[in-house]
Each structure stands twice: as C-alpha cells, then as structure tokens.
Amino acid sequence: MKIFDAHSDVLYKMWMDPTIDFANSSKLHINYDRLKASGSKVQSFAIYIPEQIKPESRFEVALEMVEIFYNKVVASSPLLKVVRTKEDILGLKEEEIGAFLTLEGCDAIDQSIVKLQTLLRLGVSSVGLTWNYANFVADGVGEPRGAGLSSFGIEVVKEHNKASIWTDVSHLSLKGFWDVMEVADYPIASHSNAMAICNHRRNLLDEQIQALIKKNGMIGITFVPQFLSNRETATIDDVIKHLDYICSFGGENHVGFGSDFDGITDTTIGLENFSGYEGLVNKLLKYYSEIQVKKFLYQNFVANLPA
Description:
Layout: E1 3-5, H1 10-16, H2 32-37, E2 40-48, H3 58-74, E3 80-82, H4 86-90, E4 97-104, H5 113-121, E5 126-128, H6 151-163, E6 166-168, H7 174-183, E7 187-189, H8 206-214, E8 218-221, H9 225-228, H10 236-247, E9 255-257, H11 277-287, H12 290-304
Parallel strand pairs: 1-2, 2-4, 3-4, 4-5, 5-6, 6-7, 7-8, 8-9
Helix pairs in contact: 1-3, 5-6
C-alpha cells in the first residue's frame, strides 16, 4: 500500500554525519532502498536546526540542509521526485516516490519574512512554528511561560495561508496552538499523539484533536515510544490505540502517520525503521477495512493538502 509519512529527520542526521549515504546507509531509519521496498509514495524531509547552532548561523544551516535534500537525497535517488502540491503528488508515476520538504521550527528565519519566503521558494511546503522552546514566532511546549503567537508569528501564519501550505502545530505551546486555530487556513500536527492515551507534553488534548478535525486538519501519529506509551517500551498495538482514539472523535479522515524516523534514538518494537510499516499495515488490516487503511496510510494526508 502507498505510504505518506509526514515527518522524518533524515536531513538533520545527514547534516550531522556527512559520510552517510542516503541510498542504503544502515545509520538511517529511512533510506532509498527501504522507501522503494516498503511502499513509500510520499516521504517528508524536515529541516531541523539543532539548539546549539548560534542564531546568526541558523539560516545558513537551513540552506545547507536544503542542499543535502536536493543534492544528496533527491539527485542520487532515481525514483525520488520533489513534490510541493497535491497536483504534484497525484502526478507521480506508479514507481515514483515524492520527496516533500518541510521546516521544523522557525528558528532559522529569525524575524525575517524574507527568509521564510526564501525557504518556501526553495520548496518548503509545510512549516512547524517551533521546536520545544521559544523563538520569535511563538513558544514551544517546553517553554515555561507558555506564550502564544507573537505579532510576527501571526504574520508568519498568514504567509503560509497566502502560499497555500500547512502550518504545523507539533511542538507548539498550548496557547500557540489555539492562536493558530484562529489564524491558520491549513493546520496540521505532523507528528503528535493523544495525551489521553500517553501523558506526554508533546501529545494533544482531546480538545485539540477535536479542533483539528473541525478545522479539516490532519494528525500524524508518531512512532516515538515516549509519545505512544507510559511504559518503558511501545509496540505497534500502542500505535493502533492512538489511531482508534482519534477515530473515536470522528477523525477517520483526519489521521495518518508521521514517524519521526531519524529524529529518535529509541524505537517502537516492530517499527525499528521504515521497513516496519509492513508490519503496521498487516496489523491495521486486522481491525480496519482496506479502504480505511489506505486512507490512514496515504489518502488522508493527500486529500488534506491545499489545492
């Protein structure tokens, strides 16, 4: 079955270790060989700027990751094609895989709309406003003051609306989330789970799940063990519990997957790398119809993309 994975940190890992070969490196959870073998149709590649990077260097590091995306990931992978829109994805040939560039946190743009516009011109098609901490756009979930969108942050979200791209609320403070719901035309949570199932600050309250569904947004269930289970380990069954829970709010058409592969050290049992999607698909088919499983894996995210 076709898979749309809404979040990975391949670019960050390759930036940290320039010796990694995207084709088949065992250092990566996601590589070209695994994508080809395991049903990938659209894979998201996030630009994530590590906290230790000095503010004056963050935009340059973002550009370096863009170069990795185009020159070391796409150019070296014959079946990978850059996709930005729903039309691009629907136009992929049967054997082709879409590569979807995203931004995880607006630290790289400082206080500059021009820097944001530049990244959008370079292909970024979904923007997460924060990582866990504060920037000039908003506070993340780890910032004690818990502030919402700044005036600049509102300008950033309006720029996303103008460009018809997703505004990603994963990692965002609670106040920031509700501010986004007021301003964003195309909100998603690319890699967040249900707090009622696993009490982690990165997960979504029931009210947030309902708001995203009402706003015709998407929730990408992530495979981070700490976001799936309150136990020390997590399994594919835990992934399905979160899926079931979101569906219980009428979210059948608003839920998919955002693995966070290559952004995590610990992995869920059965989902140690992208190849684990096969086991997830088989498990899903025990509980849901083939039509529903196709929606969860691929169709919901594609349908949610701005036209």
